[in-house]
Amino acid sequence: MLQAGCGMLEKLLAADSGYRGPRVPCGQGHEAEFVSYRDKVIDTVLGPVTFTRAWYHCAACRHGLAPRDAELEVAGASLSPGLGAMNDRAAAAGPFAGAAGLLEDLAGVRLTAKRVERAAEASGAAQAAAVRERSGLVTSRKVVPLPPSPVPDKLYAVIYAAWVVMPNRPALARVCAAERACGPLSSSA
Ligand SMILES: [Zn+2]
């Protein structure tokens, strides 16, 4: 059954070669040129799947890319988004070796503990970067989050402050002002 699913998925992926013209934006302000078609193997919840897609190279960045990989959300990854999400859940539940066993028992997918670890860490780093980017947009007021509905009656704020050396008085004054407003800021050596 899984093999049949794998075969169908490969046929679906083969329907698009990933060729997006002789040149595509590289993402850093340059144009990457089409080089050739290259194979990529990704592990999916149905098993390993191979597909061929157009490969481009940016001379300025000295970096290669496949637009199709980005469209399929597998750029720089060897797990499909679906298997990646399963891997994240399994890796969050316990040691990586146990997570690899869980994936094999429940989904029949064999990954080494090292691959489980690498994929979970890459996923965590990507999610942290997305949160930082969103926070940056909110603090720079480029994005205004909508208030929750219904609006809660009471909000609790938790402030974590790392004590740093502040030689200038204005910065110290700002901390004192914050303490007056919010109560003592905890310090740790
Ligand atoms: Zn470039």
Give short descriptive properties of this protein.
single chain, 189 residues, alpha+beta, 2 domains, four-stranded antiparallel beta sheet, 6 helices, disordered C terminus, binds zinc ion
Question: Would you give an account of this structure?
Answer:
This protein has 189 residues and is an alpha+beta fold. The chain has 2 domains: 2-136, no CATH class; 148-184, no CATH class. It is built from 6 helices and 4 strands. The protein has helices at residues 2-14, 67-71, 81-93, 96-107, 113-139, 169-182, and strands spanning 23-25, 31-44, 47-58, 63-65. A 4-stranded antiparallel beta sheet has the order 1-2-3-4. The radius of gyration is 24 Å and the shape is extended. The termini are far apart. Zinc ion (ZN) binds next to loops.
Topology (elements, then pairings):
Elements: H1 2-14, E1 23-25, E2 31-44, E3 47-58, E4 63-65, H2 67-71, H3 81-93, H4 96-107, H5 113-139, H6 169-182
The protein binds zinc ion.
